[in-house]
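Notes from the 1:1 (GR / supervisor)

We went over the backlog. Supervisor wanted to see one worked example end to end before approving the batch request, so GR pasted a single chain during the call. The sequence is below; no edits were made to it. Supervisor asked that the structure be written out right there so they could see what the output format looks like.
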Amino acid sequence: MILRGTYIKCVFFDAEIGQASFLVKPSDKIEQDKMLDNGLVKVVGRFCLQQKYMPLFLTGDWKNSEYGPEFAMYDACETALGEEEMTKFIAGLRTQLSRKEIKKILSVVNNDIFSILSIKDAEAQLQEKTGVDILSITDLTGKLKKLMNEMTLFKILDQNGGNYAHCKKILSKFQGESLAVLTTDPYQILEKVSLPFAVIDKFALNNGADAYSQQRIRAMLIWAMRRITNAGHVYFTLEELERLIKRTYGAIPVTAILSALTDHPYIMRDPDYDVYYEKTLYFDETQGAKEYARLQQSRKPLPWHPEIIEKLEKDSGCTLGRQQKEAFLLLRSTGIKVLTGDPGTGKTTTVNLLLKYLEEIWKEVDPDNKPKISLCAPSGRASQRMKETTARNALTIHKTLDYQSYGGREMCKGANDPIDADIIVVDETSMMGLGLFTKLLKAIRSGSLVLFVGDINQIPSVEPGNVLHDLIRCGTEYCHLTEVYRQSEESLINQNAKKIISGDDNLQTGSDFSLIDCKSEEMDAVFRASVQEMIRLSGDKDKVQIISPIKKGTCGTKNTNRMIQEIFNPGQGGIWYGYNNYRLDDRIIMLSNNYSLNYYNGDIGKIVDVSDNHIQMECNGDILNIPRDQFSDLTLSYSITIHKSQGSEFDYLLILLPKESRGMLDQNLFYTAVTRAKKYVRIISEDGMYSAAISVRRQNKRKSLLCERIQKILHIKKEDR
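Structure output shown during the call:
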């Protein structure tokens, strides 16, 4: 079946896959029972453009859904309609053309405005025949090309297993050249943009690409490299590359792989260890080791005054444990130090007293000046919590570095513009990847004191690297707190966290810890009832947070967010983007970094203003304006993944452990989830998933040579550590 008409309005659009529902005003006569009451036709299918009045030629089938009649399209392309319809379309492009000039152009092309895109020197010919200003005509053709480029690119990707998110990535990188690059050198895209290899490969092979060409194998290696580094590894071996490629795409001769690795633009071999790296990670690891060594070799002795510790202990009204007192031994010199601690061991109290101690002894170090202290953490939520627990200013590491990205180039503080601080404390170090670690160390002055604070039992960073464990492994001065400050007052949250990490599934329940293990068919009812009960317990729904290991599925964050939104913030209005309806006062989370707009991956805030073209968000006291073209960077945050919750704390926490998450559950993930709770945690486990998580102890096997490189520079032997 065929439907011709003009695009009127988007009803729904999934910005990830490109699934759309939109209204079309038909140009031809349509049977009344196939139209809506307003005379429009509802169309559903894969379509990425939202250009009002765009003339469309659609093929598909008529269907009756629960929402009424609709046209299920399976193909869409541009077309030419009547003069009035085409005039509206061009006017809607917001060119500099007047209606009179538009009609002149349409008369020359017989209303087929898109035909000018295939005519050589079309702009000059139109200018000659119509007398319209050449700049206005060029503006028109530029906007037409942009629309067609996006529509055609998305159509090709969709046919080869891709989606609209992939389309946007390519357009962002290659812009007007996107379609030309895809059709002439498709594997080049994989070198510049992180996309599934299979999507581009399918298109390339279907269009005559050689299965053993160097371009294909080189792109395949990039895909394999990203698979490995996305798992957190810093380096990889030739055997791992071969094995991964063979398992997924079949055997490729090792000679062809070695040939493609020679002078590869993004992969390099380190002959000292006979391993391979993504080039940026090789620089981060080697440079990070050098910067670590510089800070350790420039250490300065600091005054040692045990009596000040006793005075601080007395003034604070708390009794320090043996391990807490040992932490002060880290402060006998500057350089890099590490402090870790289990839940309930007084890590926050210890850090606060360490800072006060440093302020006291600094009177001897520099009698004329107080020490300059910089507190930072990898995420906005972690830095905000650091600010609250220390009563001192704290920033994200990116803000501390004054990090900016311009046109693919990074700019931040470094050796020539270091952080203006004598003492730097980094919290939630387990969240910090290798790249950020190296950037931070490069920006720290020689002779400074750097204290890395963290929890070795939490899940590792999303980015490649194993920074906290590597720091400990290479012999950094280190204090680990295990003694509970007041055993009788230790919460069940902390007690059970220790059980989880030790493999004991005999969890205790009580006033601050609840566990419900239920059958699959009971999950939904138990979840809904638990949410209502936690609202009652907390007295404030804003204090309640839901977390899940997964995004998709019945108990994934996408589904539970929409469910919880109707409880926490019901109503109409707002705007639709993808499957989410964003309303005033909705809780949202940022999914990526945008340095120019001043938001960071993991930032959580509340919507204070919303319109079709922007969302205004209050986050950590700042007001952020997010334009529509960045809406893919945010989502609702009533329910977030456990990984996104890292670095945050919530008063009342509900943890979902569905069977769908079995493959990723382990002690560290479960431990990280439970330790996000401050006052109360409830776990809803499907068919024993809590026990399954506790039974899985993953060895920390992230591949990193940071420790070995540090030891080599500093001539440290294993027996010396």
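Supervisor's comment: The CA atoms of residues 205 and 293 lie 49 Å apart.
Batch request approved.
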